[in-house]
Specification:
- It is a single chain.
- The protein has 490 residues and is α/β, with parallel strands linked by helices.
- The chain folds into two domains: 337 residues, no CATH class; 115 residues.
- It has 22 helices and five strands.
- The chain has a five-stranded mixed sheet.
- A hairpin with a 2-residue loop joins strand 4 and strand 5.
- Helix 9 runs parallel beside helix 11, helix 13 packs across helix 14 and helix 14 crosses helix 17.
- The termini are far apart.
Amino acid sequence: MSCGRAARPYAAWMLAGVAAITVLRLVWLALQPADLFPDEAQYWVWSQELALGYYSKPPLVAWLIAATTGLFGDSEFAVRLSAPLLHAGAAAFVYGIGARLYDARVGFWSALTYASLPGVSVSAFVISTDAPLLLFWAAALYSFVRARDEDGWAWWLTVGLAAGLGLLAKYAMAYWLLSALGFVLLFPGERRHLRPLLSATGIALVLYSPNFWWNWRNGFVSYLHTRDNAALSGQLFHPGAFIEFVGAQFGVFGPLLFAGLILLTATWRGLAEPRARLLAAFALPTLTMMMIVSLLSRAHANWAAPTYVAATVLVVAWALQCGWRRLLIVSIALHLAAVALLFTGREALAACGLQLPAQYDPLRRVRGWRELGTIVGKELAARPGLTLFADDRELTAALIFYIRPHPLDAVKWKVTSRIQDQWDLANALGKRLGNSFLLVSEHELINEMEPSFATIERLRSIAIPLGPGTSRTYTLYIARDFKGYPPGRT
């Protein structure tokens, strides 16, 4: 990284710009009315019983939530607090990558661009595995650049530590290790780094090994879930899903930046320079792999998120070399304006007396959970001796978070004999013979449940409005005297 006087203003401006964006995000998190996504509530439930792994994810996201809620309580703000801070750290590493490979000017614009990416902004407003993954991906790449330049074991050690922590955040960190290995094997001048890279990989695997041990003890459920999530079975070739995924990347990376990445990749001339090749090695393989997955089955838009750590530096450096600094400014402004509209549009329209239809509300999945929890919590408090019971993973997680005091002993109906979520893995319902429950039903599986209970008595329906003309409906029941799952169900 450049250390001369010319670099200092850019480093200071970078810190000021990233800090300003991060403070605005923290203020919004503190003031915003949005409830937790059900997945966020699920991660919070995990954080109440720390472990070395969970059904669908490695443990780091739960550990982070435990740390922030332990300091600041069980508010939505505290649950999400680490997300914007982790992305601020990632932006600092992006600055380091750009400044080290090019100069401080490239580092500054890369960091500011990364911090403003639409995908990063969305990720900074929710707690998920992506925020720690991107931090450690960026830290590992910066350390890799330093280790190659300086041939110092200290930086290779940092590569291993960052990669290991990344694996504890999300299994997609394995793509970073594969990209690094492919890079040093593909280019003859890089092969001298193979031995230290393998040593760093060994350090990463040792750091990650507790989660491997947990998976071994639990039938490798996380790995099987990851395999099933890709859905690489049944009918192959889904061009519609492919088009949808590629189109979504214009939203994740930003329309101008993703168009620039396509143009840069298509011409190949921009990738002939060694620094660009290095960055491409940590961007294009992951993006290409996710595009193939989307064609063969499906892929969520955020699955390609690690691509944009290196791709941001790659596209920014190219744009600055072409004299397109103003285009970067326009792109950053466009990103920030779009995210402001995304997260405040409904409230802004409401202040003007206009109601946004729920089908056009991008935050509709986080609406209504607090209200539902309040209603169900009153029903549960009025019936002491009943345990909370639900028929859906997301519903179970949201209710546990929004009912006070939190009913951490809640159980979920196991739909099949297969383990499909954390509650199936560690569900206590099968051990609650003779117990009675307050059932909150979303899927109306009463006919399936009736043989397992002495009686199931319907209480009432609950309609939670999500916006004009749209609501979610649930039904409350009392399920008495659990007799066990039907034969074949455990």
